[in-house]
Specification:
With 251 residues, the chain is α+β, with helices and mostly antiparallel strands. It has helices at residues 2-17, 21-28, 32-61, 76-103, 173-178, 232-241, and strands spanning 109-113, 118-123, 126-132, 140-142, 148-150, 156-159, 162-165, 168-170, 192-194, 200-205, 208-211, 228-229, 247-250. The protein folds into two domains: 2-61, no CATH class; 109-250, Beta Barrel (L,D-transpeptidase catalytic domain-like). Helices cover 39% and strands 22% of the residues. The radius of gyration is 43 Å and the shape is elongated. The relative contact order is 0.13.
Amino acid sequence: METNLLKKLKSLFMVIRSWPAGLRKFVMGLPLGAIGRVSRYVAGILLFLCLILFIIPALQRGIIHVPKPETSFGSGKESGELSRQKAELERTITRLDMKYRGLTPRSAFLVINTSGNRFYLYNNRKIYREGECSTGSYILLESENKTKWLFKTPKGRFSIQGKTTSPVWKKPDWAFVELGMTIPPENHPSRYEYGVLGDYALSLGHGYLIHGTLYKRFLGLPVTHGCVRLNDDDLEAVYRMLQVGSRVYIY
């Protein structure tokens, strides 16, 4: 390749030397401004000659190397590291998928999001129904004797302990304290209230229920004393889908 380059350059110099002496004298005798214009003219001729004599033939023969875009991600060492990381990530995903399947049965189960106040009813690990609900308000209530109640919905994994139609609410002590009333005896008739929990109720244990509400305009807001409230249609779907022992996940 060097021999060919030298040959082309020699040929180029021979062309320049072949100029008539009168032309060379004419160029030498021109004023500086004219020389500049002639020099630009001569430079254009030289560039054109270079294109004809060297650059175009070199490109045709592949002498001048035009780099191709890189298609690899780097060296073999880097590619090996990427492959190792990919394999490790795939193993982690597999482990998490197995853990998820172990925690989520194929039968129906319910998920409660207390931050967004939304519920998700699953069947065969697919969402069957979803919508708004209401959960604990996190309001702290204190009685005159310093008894305190924090109205929050418990979080964790639960199961349905029982199912009831046309449930009756037995008011706990805080319901009277909240209204500034005297707390009645345990089984006093004033503790029982009908028609405020909807048509169905599902027990989570420890006094927490999934039930209906008279205040549907508050669905989607954290306004309850710890229970989970649903609208009528959603409550009926949950009641019919879940059985005693069905899992409920609250987070």
